[in-house]
Structures are given as structure tokens and as C-alpha cells.
Amino acid sequence: PIQAAIDDIESLPPGETLLYTKTAAKYSIVRSTLIQRYKGITQPLEVKNSNQQKLT
Fold first, then answer.
1. DSSP code of 46?
2. Which of 2, 9, 27, 47 could form a disulfide with 43 if both were Cys (CB 3.0 to 4.6 A apart)?
3. H helices within 1-56, ranges in order?
4. pLDDT of 1-41, one tens digit each?
């Protein structure tokens, strides 16, 4: 669901107001998680685990 929300955000026309709260509610996800994933601060769990396994 988070990727669908990110796709929804990225499909907004230029100049349209981005409302994280509304988008998060639409997809039933936590707003802060959506923001962090959209801004690239965090990664999906699968990617994180894959990267971590490469270290060992």
C-alpha cells in the first residue's frame, strides 16, 4: 500500500498541493512512514534486509 500511495503522489500534476495526511488516510498507512519513504529517508523492509545480509 505504501508504494501505491507514493505512485499516487508522483502522479499529481505540477502545482497541485501535496497532502500527506489525506493520502496516508486514503491508503490506511501512517503519515510519517509515507513521508519518510517518499523522501527516501527509509527503505522497504525487503531492501533493508537484503542490504544487511550482504554485510555478513
1. H
2. 47
3. 2-10, 20-26, 31-38, 45-55
4. 899 999 999 999 988 988 999 999 999 999 999 999 999 88
